[in-house]
Design goal:
The strands form five sheets. A three-stranded antiparallel sheet has the order 1-3-2. Strands 4-5 form a two-stranded antiparallel sheet. It folds into three domains: about 130 residues, no CATH class; about 120 residues, no CATH class; about 250 residues, no CATH class. The protein is elongated. With about 600 residues, the chain is mainly alpha-helical. The chain has 26 helices and eleven strands. Helix 9 crosses helix 10, helix 11 packs across helix 14 and helix 20 packs across helix 23. About 50% of the residues lie in helices and about 5% in strands.
Length: about 600
């Protein structure tokens, strides 16, 4: 592994390599596997990555019969999961046969290995992170059938026995043994599962694979058995699962029901773990049904948006230079400053906000004495051509976090800013843009959707697909408040940048999408592909041999850490500067002899 690859891994740690500047390489390597939930690593994962991690942990859980994992041999006696075989893992996601599913699954596994979320064991298997069970396993050890029945009153046990075809007049011990025999036979459990209605069968999969708890809203005191009323809980699906013994009380007081161990093992053994290697196919509409001129109208809409952005860029930079807007005590812009910048941007608040937040990612803007002001790199920015500046703004926008930095937005309404970095809706939306085929539109527009949402209207089909595709590329988006609202806001911002028009992806949007899909960090900003797409959208003559001013190199790991021979002509943002420091620190710590001396060959 190259020093830059190590630095990239260390950059995902919460404190990074800088704090451990005097540490040995062995100490730093010890830090990597013990942190499975590293926000900067975890936020890079798609839904497919999540599903493979769940399947890997699930394979170990099934091997341990859903019991508590064995204790490790370390001095602290922590519980460490054993390795899982490569073919076993592929079989768990139903990708063990030759075909596209296997190719996609192996690519996903390789990504997880590169992020040190899976570690090869040298025997065609993978070690799991130390806290894999806590992050990706069942939330609790499921109770066996006998234990779950022991938490029920006698009436509940008889009710289950009667449904399963047993004699309910026998004693409690005989009833428990009979139910345990039925539910302990996988073939009988699968018969019940297949007999369930379609939506109930899907609920059972969630209970089996994810260990979800069904809320029954039945209270019981500690030490007392659970009583289920004869008329049921009010939920017919829950009552059906309970009456067949597929959900039973856990071994603790509460108002929920969980799937017992024997049932979960039978269902998990007969059904592969979910694996979705790509977002759901889009059901779009032809572009000419959205815009009278079809593709020509989309190109013209992108040109108008880019032209407006170019004019606003010059005016906003002059406005911030002339009178830097003041920040409130909570770190957001004061109302007067927001209103002034909105006027400068032609009355478009979305455009002003995008420019300001992207400028922070670029390193163009900074805070000086409580005001937002141009940084010392403003001369570099003014020296760039228009198409490079527009491309850099689009790529920087894709790198912004959901929590706003200076401009309060609906997704950061709280006065206390929390820049968690757990979700990047804009980056995910940029990735989605190439999931739309040429000539196809989602049939929705950001401005109209936001207006409809403010009036309480339900989102149309195109908007629902957009939200689902975004959450495939960035599952952590669902863990943040108002997922749909943030996706629609990002769509409106993409329209401002000329990446989307009339619900269709423009040429600029496709170049931006390729850039984001190719690397998580969108810097270097103003990459040649995006610059060339902007030039074509503006009607400019293409440059010979590409164009644009880049920061660093287009491919990850292709520049030696600390090498300034290819010093960029563009801006250096805060994240890029931090990564440079990490590369240099990792190079000093590990040295060229540790990784073979060839930092231009990335890989492990």
């Amino acid at each position: 592994m190259t020093a830059e690859g190590v630095a990239d891994l260390l950059a995902t740690l919460a404190e990074g390599v800088v704090r451990y500047a005097r540490a040995t390489p062995q100490t730093l390597l010890h830090l990597l596997p013990i942190l499975a939930y590293r926000p900067r690593a975890f936020e890079r994962l798609t839904l497919a990555h999540h599903q493979v991690l769940y399947a890997a942990v699930g394979a170990v859980e099934d091997r341990d019969r859903l019991g508590a994992p064995p204790a490790g041999n370390g001095p602290t006696g922590e519980r460490v999961p054993g390795p899982v075989g490569h073919e076993t893992l592929l079989a768990r996601v139903d990708a063990d046969r030759p075909g596209l599913a296997r190719v996609r699954a192996e690519e996903t596994v390789s990504d997880l290995v590169a992020l040190a979320l899976l570690w090869p064991d040298g025997r065609c298997g993978y070690h799991l992170p130390d806290d894999a069970f806590a992050q990706f396993g069942l939330p609790r050890v499921p109770p066996p059938v006998r234990s779950g029945l022991g938490e029920l009153d006698l009436a509940g046990v008889r009710r289950i026995a009667l449904t399963l075809g047993l004699d309910p007049t026998e004693g409690r011990g005989a009833l428990t043994g009979g139910i345990e025999a039925v539910l302990g036979a996988p073939e009988r459990v699968l018969e019940l599962w297949h007999a369930a209605r379609h939506d109930v069968a899907h609920l059972l999969l969630d209970h089996a694979f994810l260990g979800t708890e069904a809320r029954a809203f039945l209270t019981r005191a500690e030490g007392e058995p659970l009583h289920v009323p004869a008329e049921g809980t009010g939920d017919p699906d829950l009552d059906w699962m309970f009456e067949h013994g597929l959900l039973l009380p856990p071994d603790r007081p509460g108002d929920g029901l969980v799937m017992p161990k024997e049932v979960a093992l039978a269902v998990r053994g007969a059904h592969p773990w979910p694996f979705e290697p790509a977002p759901r196919p889009v059901v779009g509409v032809p572009v000419d049904r959205m815009t009278p001129g079809g593709g020509a109208d989309v190109a013209e809409g992108a040109r108008r948006a880019l032209t407006a952005l170019a004019g606003a860029d010059a005016r906003l930079l002059d406005a911030v230079t002339e009178r830097p807007p003041r920040l409130r005590r909570d770190g957001f812009l004061m109302k007067q400053g927001r209103q002034r910048l909105t006027r400068v941007a032609g009355g478009d608040e979305d455009l002003a906000r995008v420019w300001l937040e992207a400028g922070a990612v670029l390193g163009l803007l900074t805070v000086h004495q409580g005001r937002v002001a141009p940084s010392d790199q403003v001369g570099v920015w003014r020296g760039l051509d228009t198409e490079t500046r527009l491309a850099a703004l689009a790529e920087a926008w894709a790198g912004t976090e959901d929590a706003a930095l200076w401009w309060p937005t609906p997704e950061s309404a709280s006065l206390v800013r929390v820049r968690s970095g757990r979700a990047r809706t804009r980056w995910a939306l940029a990735c989605v843009l190439n999931d739309l085929p040429w000539g196809t539109s989602t049939g929705v527009e950001g401005r109209r959707l936001l207006a409809d949402r403010a009036e309480g209207r339900e989102p149309p089909t195109g908007a629902r697909w957009l939200v689902s595709a975004v959450t495939w590329h960035q599952p952590s988006v669902e863990g943040e408040p108002d997922t749909a609202g943030r996706v629609l806001r990002a769509l409106r911002e993409a329209e401002v940048l000329g990446a989307v028009f009339g619900g269709a992806t423009t040429e600029v949007g496709r170049a931006l999408s390729r850039r984001c899909r190719g690397r998580w960090e969108t810097w270097p900003h103003g990459s040649p592909g995006t610059v060339e797409a902007v030039r074509r959208a503006l009607g400019l003559t293409p440059l010979e041999g590409g164009g644009g001013v880049t920061v660093g190199s287009e491919e990850r790991g292709s520049r030696v850490p600390g090498d300034r021979s290819e010093e960029p002509g563009g801006l250096v943002g805060p994240e890029e500067e931090r990564h440079r420091e990490l590369c240099e620190a990792a190079g000093e710590l590990f040295g060229p002899g540790w990784y073979g001396g060839d930092a231009r060959t990335d890989g492990a």
